[in-house]
Specification:
Layout (H helix, E strand, L loop, with lengths): L19 H13 L4 H9 L7 H8 L3 H4 L7 H14 L9 H19 L4 H5 L10 H22 L1
Helix pairs in contact: 1-2, 1-8, 2-3, 2-5, 2-8, 5-6, 5-8, 6-8
């Protein structure tokens, strides 16, 4: 299915459209079911961008654990970026949306870094140290919240 065929209305992305508590509960329940951090964020928000949840689950499977277990970029950020890409891309027939998509992607990364102190899974979990900056559940909630905020901003511009 092409992006142009996905059914969603960006103008409907208002604060009222997102039940933040229910979405947070759903994302954490997914984590409890062994979804990785990327899957938790992306699958929770998949319906808002007209994406099939199982497809998004499969597409984000290699993004958990900081990119396939390498503890690099936090999976929760990666999941949010997938949603931003689905929300903003014009699709392969009209590949002209990259710069706008990148701008929103930068916003997510910048906001996450400002709140958490890093975007690197290993640093966030402080694998070599004593106390982590954040656990996975909080990273999922942070990225989910920030991605919703971005979708709302995109909706205002639609």
């Amino acid at each position: 299915m092409k992006q142009s065929e996905l059914a969603f209305d960006k103008a409907s992305w208002t604060e009222e459209a997102f039940d933040r508590k229910a979405l947070a509960d759903r994302a954490l329940a997914m984590h409890g079911r062994n979804f990785n951090c990327a899957q938790c964020v992306a699958c929770t928000l998949a319906p808002f961008v007209g994406a099939d949840e199982d497809f998004v689950f499969r597409a984000t499977e290699a993004l958990g654990g900081g990119m396939g277990g390498f503890t690099e970029t936090c999976g929760a950020i990666s999941g949010g970026e997938v949603i931003i890409g689905l929300a903003c891309s014009n699709g392969s027939d009209n590949p002209t949306s990259k710069q706008d998509t990148y701008a929103w992607a930068h916003k997510l990364v910048d906001n996450f870094h400002a709140r958490v102190g890093s975007t690197i899974c290993e640093e966030i979990k402080n694998i070599e140290g004593e106390a982590p900056l954040r656990g996975c559940d909080l990273c999922i909630l942070d990225s989910l919240e920030m991605t919703i905020d971005i979708l709302i901003q995109i909706g205002k511009e639609a």
